[in-house]
Structures are given as C-alpha cells and as structure tokens.
Design a protein that fits this description.
Order of helices and strands: EEEEEEEEEHHEHHEHHHHHHH
CATH class of the largest domain: Mainly Beta
CATH superfamily of the largest domain: Regulatory protein AraC
Structural class: alpha+beta
CATH architecture of the largest domain: Sandwich
Radius of gyration: 20 Å
Number of domains: 2
Helix content: 40-55%
Strand order of the largest sheet: 2-9-4-7-10-11
CATH topology of the largest domain: Jelly Rolls
C-alpha cells in the first residue's frame, strides 16, 4: 500500500505562514491532521485534492479539510508564493450557534466537491485587507498579540463565510479529467464502513471493473484499494481520539478483523490504536 505522508504540524488553534519557493519541489500525495486554508498569490500551480484538479489563479483561496489527500504540481520556472493557515478542526466547531457556523464554508466546499474559491478583485476586497492585517499581526510583537491574531482570524473567517453565503465568491467546478472519479469517491466515502467490492463500486458508477481501477489510478495517483484503506485508517484515528474503544473503532471504520486492523494501523501511523487513545487523553 502506498504510504501517504502526514505533513506539517500544529500545536495551537491556528498558525500562519507566508511562503515563497523559488527552487524545484516535488510534493507527494499527503494529508494533515488539521484543516488548511491556502491563499495562492503567484506561480504556475495545479492543485490536486481528492481526485479534483485546479489550475490556480492569483488570490484563489483553497480549502483543504483534514485527512484530504492532496498535492500541488508546481512549475519551478516561476516563484510559487502563497499564504497558508493551518487550522485546528475543533477551533471553528467551537464557534457555532443557531444563527451562524464558521465552518460553513468548509462544509459547502465538501458538498459542492469544490475546494477553490475565487473572488473577483480579491486584492481590492475587505477580505484581503483583513488578511493583510492578520499576517502583520502574526509576524510582529505587540500587546496581547495572540489574542489580537485570533480576533483578526475570526474576522477573516466571518468575512469568508459571508462572501460564500452571498455568492460573492465562486466555488470553482473541479477540472478533473473524468467526473466519474467524483462519483466513485462519493460511493466509497458513503459506504466506508461497509463491505465494498470493486464490482459493486463499478456497477454503481456504470463503469467496467478494469476501467474503474485504471481510471482511478490515472486520475488520482493512488490505487482504489490504497485509497479505501487510507480513508478507513484516518476514520479510525478520528474515532479513537473521540474516546471510542479499540474494538468499537475496528468495526465502525470498516475493518472486519481486529488483528488486520491493528496491524494496518500500527504500520501506517507507527503507533498502536491503544497508544492513540492514551495520547488523546493527555490533551
């Protein structure tokens, strides 16, 4: 099985970086424990997220959910500049009420199969001004710096959600080579805890078994079996961190055999399921 790498780190509610790459970098498919917002500034980049490909334009905003498998394809002949915000998944969940949900833009992204938002004249918008203030606050010392950064970040997220709800930003249609990939991923993710055969998936998507496996590998970079196993393991880790027992997690993440689950989990995460529970209890 391909071992998709977990990249990055986060030990706070959110962390902001402004990065410029001028040398060739080859990124493999990877995922994060946290959500990620990318504001693309310049470069020639195609971003691939969960089977969807996007040719980016300056000031596009990418929303990458935790556990989404993704990678950028970068033209090294031009600088690749972007602002990245690493964001704890639980942070936005703490800001929900009957009248608002600050994670709404992420949820809409998932529903529409669109990870890229495009705002006309982004650089002239209040959203961009708030982002500029946020970046300055996060990179300079000052009174109540951490609190001020959090306030500005919340203002940025509120403005982003308002723009999303009022259709001031456009969720781009994915430019994947074959839209059947999205149907395949929908089927997999909605049947993740059930028995899934290649034949059943192929039948649901009106495609032959051979063509399904070839197409999936060609469009996403990983095999059908690797993707299913990866998603089940990531689901299992989330459930363990929520406090479920190892036995419950084994069967609620689609595995039918405890020893198979435990062995696959430890091989992938380099830690046992029970050790994951102990770690989560420390925080």
């Amino acid at each position: 099985m391909d071992n998709y790498e977990k990249r990055g780190y986060l030990n706070s509610d959110f962390k902001l970086f402004h990065l410029i790459d001028t040398k060739k970098q080859d990124f493999e498919y990877h995922y994060h424990d946290f959500d990620k917002i990318i504001i693309f500034i310049q470069g020639n980049v195609t971003y691939r997220i969960e089977g969807c490909a996007y040719q980016l334009e300056p000031y596009d905003i990418l929303l990458v959910n935790h556990n989404d498998i993704h990678k950028p394809d970068i033209d090294p002949s031009v600088p690749y500049e972007r602002i990245i915000v690493y964001l704890s998944p639980g942070f936005l969940q703490a800001y929900q009420s009957d009248t608002y949900d600050l994670s709404a833009c992420f949820k809409k992204s998932k529903e529409l199969h669109s990870h890229v938002l495009r705002l006309h004249s982004m650089e002239k918008s209040s959203l961009y001004r708030t982002l500029t203030d946020l970046e300055y606050a996060c990179t300079h010392d000052g009174y109540a710096r951490d609190l001020y950064c959090q306030v500005l970040f919340l203002e940025f997220i509120i403005q982003l959600n308002r723009a999303s709800l009022t259709n001031l930003v456009k969720y781009l249609s994915p430019a994947t080579g074959d839209r059947r990939i999205l149907a395949i991923m929908d089927y997999i993710n909605s049947h993740l805890i059930e028995d899934m055969s290649v034949d059943a998936i192929a039948e649901s998507c009106y495609i032959s078994r051979y063509h399904l496996m070839h197409l999936f590998k060609e469009e996403t970079g990983y095999t059908l079996f690797d993707y299913i196993t990866e998603k089940r393991l990531l689901l299992a880790r989330d459930l363990l961190r929520r406090g479920l027992s190892v036995t419950e997690v084994c069967f609620q993440s689609g595995f039918k055999n405890y020893s198979t689950f435990s062995r696959a989990y430890k091989k992938h995460f380099h830690i046992s399921p029970s050790e994951t529970i102990k770690e989560s209890q420390l925080f």
